[in-house]
Structures are given as structure tokens and as C-alpha cells.
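Example record

One chain of 172 residues, shown exactly as stored in the release files.
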Amino acid sequence: MKKLTVILVLFSFLFPQQIFSQTGSERLKAVFIYNFVKQVQWSNSENFLNFQIGVVGNSPIVEVLSQVTAGKTVYNKQIIVRSFRNVSEISNVQILYVPFSASARIDEILLKLNNSQTLIVTERTGMIENGACINFSIQDQKLGFEISKTNLKKHKLTATQQLFDLALKVYD
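Predicted C-alpha cells for this chain:
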């Protein structure tokens, strides 16, 4: 729990206005997602035209993610946040956020992203077992995340030891 507190404090120093100007879990999730970008490696990053974060369905996190990532770059590429109404529209994303409202479509999403280097981030209990790489969870009334080494490997992604150390739970 101390690790989570430390990371939230670090995030607040990096983004003080952004964290405290808006309240709610969407803001914290957006900051977490932005920081996942720095802790996960994509071996095909030299092929990116830009770095794309997608969100499935209609979620308020799209606007918040756009604010958090405005003007930021990864791998010297501009970060673009996109919203997908339908699973069939999903393409060319490095991170895909699947909110609770779209989590019932995880099997369809995984099929669509088969063999892609996409970090799938969810927020519903049990999504790690269903194929998500990272899942937000709440422990002791604090937002954190769990991570799956197996699911990262399936998507040909690697993560830093620091990310594993910060996770509430690591699945092998």
C-alpha cells in the first residue's frame, strides 16, 4: 500500500494542476494510463506514426485522457486519444482502455486485437483472467491496478520491474 501512495504522490508532483483541478477516479485513471506508457515497451515503436490511446464506447475518460496527454509525446511521437463506438472500428492503438460498460465485449476485443502490440487496460473485476494486461482495482478505498505478465507476453509487450512493484497484484 505504501508503494501505491508513493506513486500517487509522484504523479501529483508531475501533474499537480491536472490531478487537483478535477476530482474523481477518471482523472486518476487517466494519469495512471499516461504513466503506463512510460513503463511498458513496444518493440515496434519505431513504426508508430503517433502513439494512440483508444477508448471503447462512450466514456468521460476520453476527454480527461486528452487533457492529461495534451502536448505530450512518447517515443518522440504525439499522443492521440481516440474513441471507438464499436469494436469493429478499433485499429492501430498502442493502448486500449475498456471501461466497465464495454467489458462484456472483451472476447470480441481480444479477437480483434489478436497478434497486436496493444496494452489492454480494463476496470472490471475478473478482466485479467479474461485477457486484460492491466486492470484497475480498488483496495482499501484507493485506486490501484493489477497486471498480468502472461497477457503482456501474449501482446508482445514488456514492462519495467517498477510497474510490477507498484501493482496491487501481479499475475504470472
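Notes: The radius of gyration is 15 Å.
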